[in-house]
Structure formats: structure tokens, C-alpha cells
Amino acid sequence: VQLVESGGGLVQPGGSLRLSCAASGFSLDTYEIGWFRQAPGKEREEISCISYAGNTYYYQDSVKGRFTMSRDNAKNTVYLQMNSLEPEDTTVYYCAADPWSCPPQDDAYWGQGTQVTVSS
Q1: Measuring CA to CA, which residue among 94, 68, 66, 96 is closest to residue 7?
Q2: Hey, what's the torsion of the CAs at 41, 98, 56, 77, to 10 degrees?
Q3: Which three-class secondary structure state does DSSP give residue 30?
Q4: Whole-angstrom Cα distance, residue 93 to residue 82?
Q5: What is the pLDDT of residues 4-21, one digit of tens each?
Q6: What pLDDT, on a 0 to 100 scale, did the predictor assign at position 40?
Q7: Measured between alpha carbons, how far is residue 107 from residues 82, 90, 94, 100 in Å?
Q8: Between 104 and which of 28, 83, 98, 114 could a Cys-Cys bridge form, CB atoms 3.0 to 4.6 Å apart?
Q9: If pLDDT is split at 50, 70 and 90, which confidence band does 50 have?
Q10: Residue 69's closest CA among 20, 13, 107?
């Protein structure tokens, strides 16, 4: 069982990135999948979650209207499209899969994270 995030990198303010969260060993469409981020020395933030029923939730006012979460069941992958990126979005982004909870809890499956840096 594994979750692997990708798509992070360096982008200028106002730019876009699409993060991917690919699962192996299980089917994402039977789990609640969440995106989180955590900066050094700060608490983990819940960004969004997509339920196995396909409902999507966004938890941070700062990302509403800029970030969009989606799922491709055929590819067993979940995405986070991030537009209008700001320097404050700089941090490590994680995905997690939980069979019961949206957003996923600490005992969910977690990926290793992908770094997003927004800087000119």
C-alpha cells in the first residue's frame, strides 16, 4: 500500500501547479482522500478532501477559489490543481487516504510529501 505525491516544484507568484497523488496496492475510489500541507514549525493544515462518493470539501478560506481537487479513478490518482499561487502557499503538501473519515485522520495512509515553493 503506497501513496506517492508528485508535481511540486518552484513556481512564480500567480503561477499554477498540479499535484498528483497516485495510489498503489488499493483503490482510491473506496477511500476518502485528503490534501494537507505543513510548514516547518507549524501545525498541519487540512486543505481539501474528496469522498468516495465524489463530494469535495475545502477547509481553508485561503485556498477556496484557487485550488481544485479532483479524482481519476481509472488512473487511481487524485489531483490538486493550484492556481494563483502565493508565497504563503510555500510548504510541503501531502495526500492521505482514509477508509472512513473525510478529512483523513492520523492513522490513514500517508504519502511522503511534495515540496511547493512559490517565489520570484
Answers
A1: 94
A2: 90
A3: helix
A4: 11
A5: 999 999 999 999 999 999
A6: 87
A7: 26, 25, 14, 11
A8: 98
A9: very high
A10: 20
